[in-house]
Amino acid sequence: MPKPALRTEICSKVAREVLLHSNREHPADEVLHETLANRSGLNKAERQEICRQVFAYYRWLGWLDAHAPLEQQINRALNLAARFKNDPNSFTADELQRAVPSWICSYVSTTEAWLRSLQAEPRLWLRARKGTGQKLARLLGNCTPAGDGALSDTLEYRGELDLYRTPEFHAGAFEIQDISSQIVGFVCNPRPGETWWDACAGEGGKTLHLSDLMNNQGLIWASDRIPWRLNKLKLRARRAGVFNYRAVVWNGGPRPPTRTMFDGVLVDAPCSGVGTWQRHPHARWTTSPEDVLELVSVQKHLLNVASSAVKPGGRLVYAVCTLTNAETSDVAKDFSARHPEFEPEPVINPILPQTPPSAELLLWPQEIGGNGMFIAHWRRKNPKPA
Length: 386
Known about the structure:
alpha/beta, 4-stranded antiparallel beta sheet, 38% helix
């Protein structure tokens, strides 16, 4: 079946419209989603082309002349993207510094490898239901597992299917979930029958993974401060056949939303999102140092409150999809100093199992092929017998 014709003028016009309406309060990916949803008559190829132009613009913004016409800037960005795809090494280390704002150098080690990873197209990861990775790979095709064992259910997809329209998706056979997010679930390693709290559940990606690892047994409390996110979780849980959870609105107040004491608590805290800058290049140019500092205080508060709900012998997991020292190792160090009742609990990095176990994992995009992520892990000490 021949591909539908690509109306280049319309694609360029819509892409410019998205760029003109994108700003700090209206992230480009949200504006893009809303714009495409309201545009009837665009075929699949045109939608893909509009997305390509928008993301290329922000990925290569540091190379563009802000005074040039917007259409010219988009074309320049597309040419740079094509050059990088054909010959990534044609960009020097000094050139690659343009990929990020200058302030980030004071917060993150801006290595050439990291900067180069930011300019590549992001990879698409799926999470198959526990133990079904091989079967799903055969059904969808164009899937490569991330590894052996549990990672055999973590699949990179390189095909052309609209995954949201596949019967496997509607049957709950898989979720679209980045590999770093899946690693958080593996670090939590919840057991069937345990009780967990996903304190900042959002739309429930990690809640669903925890449930799958628990064989849908036990109980998960999923909380978030925004009700519509929890409504989205309910829809996703219904499709996935997940029922061992309770959703509750919690605004991060001074007390947990329940008096339950948990075997494990996951604090997937709000963060600056620097680890997602490959997938969300617009955020590179709207995030500020002030954001980082404000979020640090939120992260410390959430950890402090959530830790009070961990039972003796239970575990606390802190995760943020950022790479700044202030939000990662500094927050973990502060928590350990303030809470001697918790001790760091080493875990094995499932992506790099040959490395020594550590209570802190810093996952870099260039090493795992997904978002950057920091994970810290503690266990609450059992009280000494009298």
